[in-house]
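Researcher: Structure for this, please.
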Amino acid sequence: MSFGSRLRERREALGMKQSELGRLLGVTGSAIGNYENSVSSPKADVLYRVFDALQCDANYLFRDEMTAPPSEDATPPELDMLRKYRALDEHGRKLIDTILELEADRTAEPPAAAPAVTTRIIPLLGNSFAAGVGEPDFGNALEEYEIEAGRKADFAVRVNGDSMEPYLHDGSIALGVKGTPRDGDVAALMVDGAFYVKQVCIDAPGNLYLFSLNRDRADLDLEVKASSGANVSCFGTIVMEKRLPLPLRFGG
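Model: Predicted structure, token format:
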């Protein structure tokens, strides 16, 4: 006998109509008919009230189904769980039923979609970037770099060497914004065709100084005299986590 057949048998043995049992369980009489015809099954909280209303236990209603051969595709762990479930008393089975219902409802809900991240493309500048006189043409960059749309940046540069350690690492990508740097800012520049990422300073006569943040590599500092006629183009200022002091001779 199925659970539904046992339910009908017990209800009729008590002389109870489907509508009467439904009132006791808090469901409609048609729901009781669905249970008895195996169209649907009562939820765990309703099932607990069935035992009280029909004055029987789970063993009576499920005994035929529980002794039926397990599904052929059941795994050994599943069969072990079934064996343990059958050995439980009524309280234990009710507890397991409640947990199963809660987990079934939880896993049936579709996972929340991750918020979409909007991005945009900025030019990635490198040693091969050719800049002319005046403001560089960012449209001629050889590479593109993708960043989150909300980040403040107009371009990116690929850092080469260790002269800017420990703030800018060899091979890392640094972001920059267009605009003239102030003394002490780190800037991306082209001097006579050579590309530099350095801390900058201009003195009163107009001489340009490019400093390595790694003072162990001060040998890579560069001084560009105002009278030298050097071709200097500045792409903009590199975005740094903090403002760094200039070398001592410039008040840092």
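Researcher: Any notable elements?
Model: DSSP finds seven helices and nine strands in the chain. Confidence is low (pLDDT under 50) at residues 127-137.
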